[in-house]
């Protein structure tokens, strides 16, 4: 595997930092919340689904961007159900944000709605600047927990540490996240480059916000002594040691899955990858599973929000899409390999191999500190870049 580096577009990063950084120019403390609350979600008081469908049909079409190729399946299902031509485009989250910003500024909006993994930019920039807005379907409002409504959580996905079950038939050879900092695992962790993957950067900043105690306890459990560090926190110490251990960086989860679980694999590697890639077990004969029992977590969950472009030329079709994705009929195409809907009545269709308890096995994103993710992103990016080399 070759090491690659994808850089978040400079225009987006500069705008985001300028919009949300504290006046001192320094990073905000982890857990910082917005100075002003987000605008409340829009809920149509006189909502009627049949009326919305008819209005959407008159608009005729819909364009939705998403970081997952699954959006193409969602688009097909939406068109089949409503007879409205929907196009789903796979686009990395930073590029989607940059395109929405430019379209909004030019009054030439083509993206009607977006599935958005970067909660920091969403709550720190796109919503406050009026580029995107949250619309909650009134008939589903009671099915969506309050904490999932603003911004509107469509679903949660997960990135997990995974191993090759044929090469390690007795279980994952890594039992503790600190194992990945040891020389025996140098160059054997395969992951996406954090500099091009906002969800991984958010995982790092969220760890610093509310994961330090768990990391300290895991260190104590492995080494029998308390962690001593000159870094700002246990999270930064773990990030440093892991990056210095030279993980192999890729540009896609598909590459990670191939390196770890392909039938031709002969070298034991650990992949830090999306649970969506477990589909390769059936589709390609791969042998991979989650590192069950890994301390203090086997990976992290991350939110995928749905937002409507404020200047959409097809606002009713965009709303209808939001309604669709908040139902089992719509979201099942996004969580087919594992995930949790933002609608509490929708049950997960499958359990990824080794991920039996979503709540206890994963480190979870705290939506209250999304703005802190954005404000602290440059620091953690620079920290990774310096240490990985």
TrEMBL record:
Organism: Streptosporangium minutum
InterPro entries reported for this sequence: SBP
PANTHER family membership: ABC TRANSPORTER SUBSTRATE-BINDING PROTEIN, THIAMINE-BINDING PERIPLASMIC PROTEIN-RELATED
Keyword hit for Cell division: no
Keyword terms: Signal
Database matches in PROSITE patterns: PROKAR_LIPOPROTEIN
Signal sequence region: 1-21
Keyword Hydrolase: no
Protein name: ABC transporter substrate-binding protein
Matches recorded under Pfam families: SBP_bac_8
